[in-house]
Design a protein that fits this description.
The chain has 310 residues and is an alpha/beta fold. The chain is 43% helix and 19% strand. Strand 9, helix 12 and strand 10 form a beta-alpha-beta unit. The chain is globular and about 45 Å long.
Length: 310
């Protein structure tokens, strides 16, 4: 019943944006688990890595607006329709996943290279993967703050997740529509909720995802390994890793992102060898939900319309 409910809610999201994804399951050799991937569009391939405690369908609005990109939407391990990581999930294991997730996905799809699009928690895998496998990542498009990058702190309600058992307690709270709304607002999605950037179908999908899958429990366990009570997120994408990224990078940042201001955005862009920065007014932590047309144009010009490399 749970699987059917999630699939139905997800289908309604895709119907609303006018796209029908093709689904695959990929056995990832280095990561050591099986993930679900949805694909829409055709053109140059781009692997999309979602944020905390959601799944690939969270990109539906942007992916549907990019029909000239082969959008490969990955449910990160333990999220949505993907299997969790087997055994104990500790920091070393999570960083190894970050290093190899993108390369494993490309291997299973028979792709030598692709662009990578990421946000928030997915930024860890995107940036570490681009540094570990610079020959596999052609271009890197980052939306908003990325977990583990230098110079950011987590608010107290996130740092509390480092306490023993806190993650299990948080994951056990029933996620009603009201609770989902409150959680999204904490993550800086007020404008998307108040101005219609996040649809009723998308909210219903999240309620079903949290109630009928183990996504929250798996993400809480992973977050506990990535957090310290004092400082918040560990510095798992340090400056030497950022300096090793060779892919041309575009950073698109909302000026209302609660996890970092424009100065934070500039520090990230300046730490990358080849990056440009676009700060969008009246946009939050997931800027494509607030400024879809602008983010679509920034994505298309970067992923499709750019001059070919010599």
């Amino acid at each position: 019943m749970g699987v059917e409910a999630v699939a139905g809610a997800e289908r309604r999201v895709w119907e609303e944006v006018g796209a029908t994804p093709v689904e695959h399951r990929l056995d990832l050799a280095s990561v050591g688990t099986t993930v679900r991937v949805q694909e829409v569009g055709s053109g140059p391939p781009a692997v999309f890595l979602h944020g905390t405690s959601v799944a690939g369908t969270s990109w539906a609005d942007l992916a549907a607006a990019l029909p000239d990109v082969r959008c490969i939407l990955v449910d990160r391990p333990g999220c949505g329709g993907s299997d969790p990581l087997p055994g104990e999930v500790d920091l070393d294991r999570l960083l190894a996943v970050g290093d190899h997730l993108v390369a494993d996905v490309l291997d299973e799809l028979g792709l030598a290279t692709a662009a990578v699009v990421a946000t928030s928690r997915g930024g860890l895998e995107a940036l570490r993967g681009a540094a570990a496998h610079p020959d596999r990542v052609e271009r890197l498009l980052l939306f908003g703050w990325c977990l583990g990058t230098p110079g950011t702190r987590a608010p107290w309600w996130i740092r509390a997740g480092a306490l023993p058992g806190a993650g299990r307690m948080m994951a056990a709270v029933p996620m009603s529509r009201r609770n989902v709304d409150m959680t999204l607002r904490r993550f800086g999605l007020d404008r998307a909720l108040d101005e219609g950037g996040m649809s009723a179908a998308a909210l219903d999908w999240l309620v079903t995802l949290y109630g009928d899958t183990e996504t929250l429990r798996h993400e809480s366990a992973a977050s506990a390994a990535l957090l310290t009570l004092r400082d918040g997120w560990r510095d798992v994408v340090p400056r030497d890793r950022l300096a090793a990224v060779r892919a041309p990078t575009r950073v698109v940042w909302g000026d209302e992102d609660p996890f970092g201001d424009e100065a934070t955005a500039r520090r990230l862009a300046d730490a990358l060898p080849d990056a440009d920065l676009h700060v969008l007014e009246r946009a939050g932590h997931a800027p494509w939900l607030d400024r879809l047309a602008t983010c679509t144009e920034l994505a298309r010009t970067f992923l499709v319309d750019h001059e070919p490399e010599d």
